[in-house]
Design brief:
By secondary structure, the chain is mostly helical. It is 50% helix and 7% strand. The strands form two sheets. A three-stranded antiparallel sheet has the order 1-2-3. The protein binds s-citryldethia Coenzyme A (SDX). S-citryldethia Coenzyme A (SDX) is lined by residues 45, 229, 232, 263-265, 267, 292, 300-308, 356, 358, 361-363. S-citryldethia Coenzyme A binds at residues 45, 229, 232, 263-265, 267, 292, 300-308, 356, 358, 361-363.
Length: 429
Amino acid sequence: MSKQAKLDLNGSAFTLPIVEGSEGEKAIDVSELRAKTGHITLDDGYGNTGSCRSKITFIDGETGILRYRGIPIEELAEKSTFVETAYLIIYGHLPTRAQLKRFSDLLTAHQYLHEDMKHHFVGFPSTAHPMAILSAMINAASCFNPDLMRGGDAGQFDDHAAQLISQVRTIAAFSYRKSRGLPIIYPKEAYKYTANFLHMLFSTPYEDYELKPEVVRALDLIFLLHADHEQNCSTSTVRMVASSHANMFACAAAGVCALWGPLHGGANQAVVEMLEDIHQSGDDGSKFITAAKDKTSGKKLMGFGHRVYKNYDPRAKIIKRACDDLLNVMHIADPLLDIAKKLEEAALLDPYFVERKLYPNVDFYSGIIMRALGIPTEMYTVIFAIGRMPGWIANFKEITDDTKSRIYRPRQVYVGPTLNHYVPLHDRK
Ligand code: SDX
């Protein structure tokens, strides 16, 4: 197989190196293209553009493969926990018992916010969207850590990473309590990561929330399945910001903003709102599917389709099964789950979706599990952000550890007005 691509431009021949990844993915390295040819590439939405070499997550969209540091998501979903998987994604290997204990202890040590952070919560209206609070409060939390503001050195990476993973959960829980006018509930040292989050969400000052194992396990699985996903919109945003050598918290706050969009992490909230609309309208889903195929309707089948997966998203398969199991164990019959299954069944037989290889993605069923756990719709994307934090931190680390990494600064093709001149106000028509 040739290691070079040949380009013929106006009679001149150029060669460009071909790069091959460890799973056989091939890329044409265009880093010398402009110097050699005076041309740049143009790729709307970066559908054909690799922004980096990464060792963290591998996705094969054609066959529906997802691996974190080479380990299949199915194995991690069955055998691991969110905290252990977070360690794997960030540090590149499964932790020893001692490493896992140190990481867990660091998460516990960093779970409290600086007490003065409470004043910021007071300033938000109760109707503030928790994603707006989350991005603001991640940056606010960094102000209490001068080392971070100085950029921090590699020696403090472990602390900064543990602080971010631990505190994103505390901030999220506090924003929920604030939105409901409830007293905030502090984390408890005795509780592990996900159990502590549920405790901070749902306990009362005089009675701890009952931590049912199936509930804790279901939410931990949701976090684990969202932990990383190669160069998606929000992770690319984190890398973009990290490339300017901004601090870890600033990068994560930018990631939260990118994730919020309904085409990305906001889709889990949009799916449940879509299912609720269908349920309330009495539609069996067929009308909605017709609208989703009609470009003029402005509607999409939310939770369906993916830039990379042209097959079933492996995470959606796992979540759908977990959904069935949890609702059975909790004796919940959610009509939205029935509607979701009908929509999936109809879409997977409909030529419009089949021809475009549109399958359920991670967001299609995740909201139904969160509904069953009692998490309000507006918190769904926050849950996604908590899960994705290890992936953002791992990508931040991959850039900052690479001494040869350069600032991300794409080019453009200018299509605006050619040379023009200033016209004084009195001469304008
Ligand atoms: C996530 O990138 C990641 O890895 C993201 C993520 C992660 O873990 O980080 O996996 C998480 O964001 C999952 C995606 C969540 N978003 C949604 O569920 C929103 C609904 N989906 C679509 O908006 C869309 O499928 C995207 C945004 C997910 C992908 O968009 P693309 O790759 O730009 O695809 P496209 O819009 O070019 O679609 C190709 C065709 C178009 O029709 P034609 O122009 O060919 O006629 O498919 C159609 C689209 O109109 N289409 C849909 C559709 N998704 C695509 N039509 C109806 N409903 C949909 N959901």
